[in-house]
């Protein structure tokens, strides 16, 4: 599945882009993606290039899964439906229609005690309009989108590679996006298809599986090496020092203290499900945050062990305030604030996880995220040029033989 870029076998590296879940906080990631694509266009002096032209895999969970589809689904001309710069305007326009009446003191919030807070109808309709009948195996580069099947109580990972060899997994992108974004409490679980021609799925938000899908994306390429897929000729399954990984988060408020054991010891089911004092969903927040932190922990250790820390860029902010992290706050003021947070994050020094405290700390060298994105963009550009050169050389040699 390499329609706009050549596979790794023609180059030296495996390139992966990972996009976290986080509802409307996807705006933060959208700002980062727009800047990365802008750097690629400037380096290659070509405004038509898109992120899908440079990455072997784009992995996305929940709102990250939606962005993944936007960046990789083809339009009528065989190019990505959306440029990265279009993501933030899309969220600013569509979020209030998806998360209507999102303030917690709105009477509709009380409904969530008995049913999902939102019916999801607009989201379902809009994704159908945008993605149409496009299926997983039609994406312009490999995609990996985690979900969780509540009927089987197990993760379901949708990957364009598996869809190409197993028709039962070749679902419509719109269905996959609805499934991976069906966060418990907020949106209803999603069952599809409604016929017996395909495997049936009963899905909720992929964040309960991997809110940060970095390792899912890396594993997808490792599996291709294990089965000796021709795209991965020359790459061993665990040669992660040859991987270039950009992982983009959606922010958290972990530096603000939330709950105490003394307080939580008095909670029953209701307070764990929704806490009126904090206006939070504790059990869901804990699952999403722990899932994301463990992925970052393991990924950081892996690249440290391989002495390849400069191959892994994680851009995220753990300094958000509590009132900035609601995944469904679609008020204009909040959406614009999330955009500003993303822009400020570009000017923030590159951070890495402290493996003892699980918090982000600046790296020794003084470089901000935008400068590091530019460095990674140059690596991606060079790799793409190398693959194209190698491919055409092989074609010429074959023609002359």
From TrEMBL:
GO terms for biological process: lipid catabolic process. Transmembrane segments: none annotated. A motif (DGA/G) lies at residues 205-207. PROSITE patterns: PNPLA. A motif (GXSXG) lies at residues 60-64. The keyword Lipid metabolism applies. InterPro entries: PNPLA_dom (IPR002641). Pfam families: Patatin. Residues 17-218 form the PNPLA domain. GO terms for molecular function: monoacylglycerol lipase activity; phospholipase activity. The active site is at residues 62, 205. Coiled coil: none annotated. Keywords: Hydrolase, Lipid degradation, Lipid metabolism. A motif (GXGXXG) lies at residues 21-26. PANTHER family: PATATIN-LIKE PROTEIN 1-RELATED (PTHR32176:SF89), XYLOSE ISOMERASE (PTHR32176). This is Patatin-like phospholipase domain. The lineage of its organism: Eukaryota, Viridiplantae, Streptophyta, Embryophyta, Tracheophyta.
